[in-house]
Amino acid sequence: xxxxxxxxxxxxxxxxxxxxxxxxxxxxxxxxxxxxxxxxxxxxxxxxxxxxxxxxxxxxxxxxxxxxxxxxxxxxxxxxxxxxxxxxxxxxxxxxxxxxxxxxxxxxxxxxxxxxxxxxxxxxxxxxxxxxxxxxxxxxxxxxxxxxxxxxxxxxxxxxxxxxxxxxxxxxxxxxxxxxxxxxxxxxxxxxxxxxxxxxxxxxxxxxxxxxxxxxxxxxxxxxxxxxxxxxxxxxxxxxxxxxxxxxxxxxxxxxxxxxxxxxxxxx
Length: 268
Known about the structure:
Elements: E1 6-10, E2 16-24, E3 27-34, H1 37-50, H2 68-80, E4 88-90, E5 94-100, E6 103-108, H3 112-117, E7 120-123, E8 126-131, E9 134-137, E10 154-156, E11 169-171, E12 178-182, E13 188-196, E14 198-205, H4 208-225, H5 241-250, H6 255-258
């Protein structure tokens, strides 16, 4: 007798496998593929009981037969009546994205459409999504630079590194090579550092924009000496092209940087 909710399929090599699925609120939902009819039937039976229960996400047990992501999807559909194929659970003013049971990220509701269509992946400490065939660093969506350091270049205001709501993210240093320094007197300066063979100090400046331009000027010099090196320059969108050019021309940077132009045999 055929098991309810289970369908037989065949791999390219001719091996047989079993697919489980159910229809809930007029939505046909695939539950996964299994090596045996018994396992597929177990997943189907559990899914049916889950959508009729009050079981929470925290009560997940791997022995239920469903993978964790599908478990979250079904509970969200049950509770919120919205089907989302990624492991998202809706709250009133935000939503939770379950990367796995131990890594639950919080986002503003205006990001829901994006994360409904883009699956988050993780490699080490790096989060990324596939977007138009490219791996896009998730943090860049929130103005966090690729090599930014937590609590130096940005911070989570409530100290929850899983909370990516916009109000919880403070960008301390927006530009490459620029480090904000606040004195006890309240005075603020922006120190610029560039990595050549070790860190070189470019200078200290009264504004972020000046510091960002000083870094760009230093990069232009370094690349003339070390053309094979790659540096990501700063895009300063708060200044007109003429204002940018005036600052670039007049800004002073460390003699250690300008003296590189006198290097007779630069290494690459």
